[in-house]
Amino acid sequence: MSGLPTVVVPVFNGLDALDGCLAALERTLPAGTNVLLADDASSDPRIAPLLAGFAARSRLAVRVVTRARNLGFPGNCNAAFAETGDADLVLLNSDTVVTTGWLQRLAACAAADPRIATVTPWSNNAEICSFPRFCEDNPPPDDPEAIAEAAAGLDAAAVELPTAVGFCMVVRRAALRALGGFDAATFGRGYGEENDFCLRAAAMGWRNVLCPQAYVVHLGGASFGPLGLAPNGDNLARLLARWPDYNERVARFILADPLALLRQRLNERIEHLARSGPQRDLFG
Predict the structure, then answer these.
(1) Of 171, 191, 198, 239, which one has the fewest beta carbons inside 10 Å?
(2) How far apart are CA 132 and CA 67, in angstroms?
(3) In the predicted model, is pLDDT for residue 32 greater than 70?
(4) Over residues 181-187, mean pLDDT
(5) What's the pTM value of the predicted model, to 2 decimals?
(6) Which of the four pLDDT bands, split at 50, 70 and 90, describes residue 83?
(7) CA nearest neighbour of 220 among 99, 123, 78, 91
(8) What secondary structure letter does DSSP report for 128?
(9) Could you tell me whether strands 89-92 and 6-11 are parallel, antiparallel, or unpaired per DSSP bridges?
(10) What are phi and psi of 236, to 5 degrees?
């Protein structure tokens, strides 16, 4: 669908989470939205028929690409960047559950400033963009649509982030052209490549922002779990070698917590909507 970013879902195994992710895409996206499912040579033989079946049934414009060999997450994403033409795109982990209007709200946020390179939504599990508790892995909410509805009504501009959070992020095509893609040579099978991309973007005057109006559930673990990767170790050392002040930038953001007022306002909107409708336990 013209006017909306292409949704790119990098896939490597994780069948159950992937099935839920695809169902949520079908439920929430306008008919004809472009979706690229990039299978990085999954070893689970059930993945290929799941993707093919979804593409055959979907009302979305779904394309499935299967790598001949495993490229690692950065390499798979770079190939997908080249396979999606001139469109802006959203990288969406396969362990996410999107909510009504998520893509339109992210796109509107990106469109507000041509210097925005990446946009991240709220999530239960999104580090500096986590809600309701900051920098925590909150459990998936019982009613994510209620949180998404409350977020959609926030009257707030995008907020600067030190880096996007890679579970779900808009990547503007103009920024890709200016910066190149992820550094697969340095970050190998994955972890740290999106942080490096965002830091390169900021160094060239681009912005990485939170979209206060969008909310996406992140289950966590399914994307890198099958690879046995953890958010530490060699790739973190490589990131810090290139950007020695990275930890300081993030620490300053956490200390200042510029999202605190927005989280409070979002909580207040959730409570208001709960009072004006059926009583719901949103957070389990």
Answers:
(1) 239
(2) 38
(3) yes
(4) 91
(5) 0.92
(6) very high
(7) 123
(8) G
(9) parallel
(10) -65, -40
Residue matched to tokens 């028929």:
49
Q: How far apart are CA 189 and CA 112, in angstroms?
A: 33
How confident is residue 220, by pLDDT bands cut at 50, 70 and 90? Answer: confident
What are 28's two structure tokens? 């929430």
- What are 60's two structure tokens? 């979305």
In the CATH scheme, what architecture does the domain 6-275 have? Alpha-Beta Complex (3.90)
3-state secondary structure of 100: coil
- Please name the amino acid found at residue 280: R
- β-pairing, 207-215 with 96-97? unpaired
**CA dist., res. 104 & res. 36, Å (int):** 17
CB 80 within 8 A of CB 38: yes
- Return d(Cα 86, Cα 119) in angstroms, integer: 18
> Which pLDDT tens digit goes with each residue over 247-260?
999 999 999 999 99
Q: In DSSP terms, which residues pair with 11 in a beta bridge?
A: 39
pLDDT in tens, 191-217: 889 999 999 999 999 999 999 999 999
Nearest one of 176, 216, 6, 5 to 107, comparing CA atoms: 5
The residue-averaged pLDDT of 171-178 equals: 97
Find the DSSP H helices in 30-143: 47-57, 72-82, 102-111
Q: Which two tokens stand for residue 77?
A: 């994403």
Give yes or no for a cis peptide into 212 (omega within 30° of 0): no
